[in-house]
């Protein structure tokens, strides 16, 4: 009697494809929340500024309020763009498939900062995590939040088995490349 034919087995998805296919809840659980293999993590849904003692909330989303994010970029960084500033172009970039945003809100639920990151390839099959944008209002600076956001990016890169963290936002340069060398990642600023 002939053996029944098995359906073809699809090739396994790689770590980056799996990361990008996850819902925000699953992404948070897989890459940022504590697990048995990663009992400590830099993720918490709150941040209290050490000087002002103001509490802020952090949320992860792939559907951010783009107009509010764009307004924050204009407020914090428009001068750096100079004549190259183009809100339509920036909005297109902010809609890049796979981008995840960590939004920071103050007690009045006003957007006061955000980070955007993207697990991807450079070139395939080299897995990388791009840090696209980091924008914080002045009242959030100097309290360690920027460093904590970069630790979140390192955590995602490590759990997604990326070997490179590419800082497109140039935060590393601004912070003196104050990242965790024990993470075993290649840090690159563009």
UniProtKB/TrEMBL annotation:
Main localization category: cytoplasm
InterPro entries listed in its UniProt record: Acyl_CoA_acyltransferase (IPR016181), GNAT_dom (IPR000182), NAA40 (IPR039949)
Alphabetized CDD domains for the sequence: NAT_SF
GO molecular function annotations of the record: histone H2A acetyltransferase activity; histone H4 acetyltransferase activity; protein N-terminal-serine acetyltransferase activity
The keyword Acyltransferase is annotated on this UniProt entry: yes
Family affiliation: Belongs to the acetyltransferase family. NAA40 subfamily.
Intracellular or extracellular location(s): Cytoplasm; Nucleus
Residue intervals of the N-acetyltransferase domain: 60-190
EC number: 2.3.1.257
One protein family per Pfam: Acetyltransf_1
Superkingdom of the organism of origin: Eukaryota
Enzymatic reactions: N-terminal L-seryl-[histone H2A] + acetyl-CoA = N-terminal N(alpha)-acetyl-L-seryl-[histone H2A] + CoA + H(+); N-terminal L-seryl-[histone H4] + acetyl-CoA = N-terminal N(alpha)-acetyl-L-seryl-[histone H4] + CoA + H(+)
Cellular component aspect of the GO annotation: cytoplasm; nucleus
Signal peptide from the UniProt entry: none
Keywords (A to Z) from UniProt: Acyltransferase, Cytoplasm, Nucleus, Transferase
Protein name listed in UniProt: N-alpha-acetyltransferase 40
């Amino acid at each position: 009697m002939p053996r029944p034919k098995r359906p073809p087995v699809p090739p396994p998805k790689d770590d980056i494809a799996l990361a990008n296919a996850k819902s925000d809840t699953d992404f948070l659980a897989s890459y940022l929340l504590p697990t048995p293999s990663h009992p400590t993590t830099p993720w918490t849904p709150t941040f209290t500024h050490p000087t002002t003692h103001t509490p802020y909330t952090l949320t992860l989303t792939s559907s951010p309020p783009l107009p509010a994010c764009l307004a924050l970029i204009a407020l914090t960084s428009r001068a750096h763009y100079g004549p190259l500033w183009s809100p339509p172009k920036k909005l297109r970039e902010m809609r890049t498939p796979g981008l995840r945003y960590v939004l920071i809100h103050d007690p009045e639920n006003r957007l006061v900062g955000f980070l955007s990151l993207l697990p991807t390839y450079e070139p395939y099959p080299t897995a990388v995590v791009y840090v696209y944008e980091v924008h914080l209002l002045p009242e959030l600076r100097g309290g360690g939040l920027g460093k904590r956001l970069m630790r979140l990016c390192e955590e995602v890169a490590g759990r997604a088995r990326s070997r490179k963290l590419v800082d497109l936002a140039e935060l590393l340069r601004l912070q003196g490349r104050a990242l965790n060398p024990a993470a075993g990642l290649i840090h690159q600023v563009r």
